[in-house]
Design brief:
The chain has 16 helices and 24 strands. The longest helix has 21 residues.
């Protein structure tokens, strides 16, 4: 493959990282991963002119790649009005003087260069980008086919598919409302076949979603693909329309609540974020904020949090899908204070939050839990499914399963109470009385949930273990009749 991956970091991407090229075309494709959201941004150039597809809000990562490669950005393309993150497209175009290309049918509040199905845009002297209408994820979704001048004339090279054709999957069709889902899922099937018919098998596929993003209808482990590979393996291209529609809709689960705020934010034209440090808070100030109902968020890993934390703080560790779950659970507009061991940890969290439209934390504190409270530390035990199996032989305990409903319905521990993690903040009072053992599919969500249970005055036990061990260790699992699927398929989405 041609892409050199620039991994997500709290600071901008490294300026010294070397890009890889396909010598025949002389093109460079840079992939900027935003792993916490399961998305990718692409920087493509021929050594002189560059284009960017679907940039995230923190555009300094893109600017550093452009500077490191010594190229000039001329065009920024959006595949669609995104629902899972705040775009950096407008700010990037304004910072560089590049044209900002957005579907002319999208209703937006800013000046853009409108683009339509079939339109071809020349980028530099050698690259051409053709817009292809691919509705399905949204009604106005566009994919972009890239061709390049070669020794035998214009050669198709790749297609940037946004939330249309993904690796082994497609973008989900239900984010615009239930009333549009049937029409969109059928559009999605037709759009995928349109791409397969118009592009050669060797054309590389570069989607924006599909790497843990809840914008993907299903999850895949693939990191690269071509049109030919997708034709052989992607259900949207191997199944008839009715089978695809039925199976995709049957498999859809819940999606993050913060998504409803992303479309309006992106249509309004987001500005560049302010990533400067926020004010420091001492233990007294942190206590005041917790007592006022604000969110004080401990960024440390779940083992450290369980061992000791400021009472009333919530645990969203940076080692998982921090921004996805915080954005999903929080009541929009609630003030957030960040607790990190280092200033770098807080900066990382701040960067992740601006990507979903939480622009400025109320405050921050660094150090450790002993610095964040004037009183006793809170704590709770952690355990494994083996421990749970053993304890259930001796006494009754409450098993709280915080996986999504679709996961729970696939396989669950007999007698477990299911309150999905995204419903727990408003339903924590429904947790039955008794000793509460909290589990998910891998441990991340269990720790988040345990922190809410603890903040409500209970003492939970957080099961820090893989759900696949539950059956191996003698815990009786209940499944739908005839279901033989792996209960861990889909697991925790991007937090694994």
């Amino acid at each position: 493959m041609t892409d050199a991956t620039t991994t997500e970091t709290p600071a901008p991407a490294s300026a010294t990282e070397e890009a890889q090229q396909r010598p025949a075309e002389g093109l460079t494709v840079r992939t900027l991963e935003t792993s916490s959201l399961g998305d990718r941004t692409y920087v493509v150039h021929d050594g002189e002119a560059a284009l960017v597809i679907d940039p995230q809000r923190d555009i300094d990562r893109v600017l550093e790649v452009l500077e490191a490669d010594g190229v000039r950005l001329t065009h920024v393309f959006e595949t669609h009005i995104h629902n899972d993150y705040v775009t950096g497209g407008l700010a990037l175009a304004q910072a560089t003087g590049a044209a900002y290309l957005v579907n002319g049918e999208d209703e937006v509040s800013f000046d853009r260069t409108p683009i339509a199905d079939g339109e071809v845009v020349e980028v530099g002297d050698r690259m051409r980008v053709r817009a292809i209408a691919t509705p399905g994820h949204t009604f106005t979704h566009l994919s972009y086919a890239l061709s390049v001048d070669g020794p035998d004339g214009e050669e198709p090279y790749a297609v940037f598919t946004g939330g249309s054709l993904l690796y082994g999957a497609t973008g989900r069709p239900d984010l615009l409302g239930e009333e549009h889902t049937d029409a969109l899922v059928r559009h999605q099937h037709a759009s995928a076949h349109k791409l397969a018919e118009q592009l050669p098998d060797e054309a590389e596929v570069y989607p924006t979603h599909g790497f843990g993003s809840f914008c993907s209808a299903t999850q895949s482990e693939a990191t690269a693909s071509t049109i030919g590979e997708e034709k052989r393996s992607n259900p949207v291209l191997t199944q008839d329309e009715e089978t695809y529609v039925r199976e995709l809709l049957d498999g859809l689960g819940a999606w993050p609540a913060y998504y409803v705020h992303m479309g309006p934010a992106n249509a309004a034209g987001p500005s560049a974020p302010d990533l400067s440090p926020v004010q420091e808070a001492d233990a007294t100030e942190l206590r005041r904020r917790i007592d006022a109902g604000e969110w004080v968020v401990d960024l440390r890993n779940r083992k450290a949090f369980a061992a000791g934390h400021a009472p009333g703080a919530f645990n969203f560790g940076l080692d998982g899908a921090f921004s996805t779950y915080l954005g999903w659970l929080i009541e929009w507009g609630t003030a957030v204070t960040l607790l990190g061991e280092t200033a770098e940890d807080v900066a990382t969290a701040q960067r992740e939050l601006v990507r979903i439209g939480i622009d400025r934390p109320a405050a921050q504190a660094t150090g450790g839990p002993q610095d964040w409270t004037d009183g006793d530390l809170g704590s709770f035990p952690t355990a494994t499914f083996a421990d749970l199996a053993q304890v259930r032989h001796h006494r009754d305990v409450v098993v709280l399963d915080v996986r999504r409903a679709d996961e729970y319905e696939g396989a669950a521990i007999a007698g477990a109470v299911n309150i999905p993690i995204h419903e727990l903040p408003r339903r924590v009072g429904e947790v039955p009385a008794g000793e509460v053992w909290v589990h998910c599919a891998s441990g991340y969500r269990a720790s988040v949930a345990a922190s809410f249970v603890a903040a409500a005055g209970r003492t939970p036990v957080a099961v820090d273990d893989s759900f696949e061990n539950a059956e191996k260790l003698g815990l009786h699992l209940v499944r739908p009749e005839g279901d033989t699927t792996d209960p861990t398929d889909g697991a925790d989405g991007p937090d694994v």
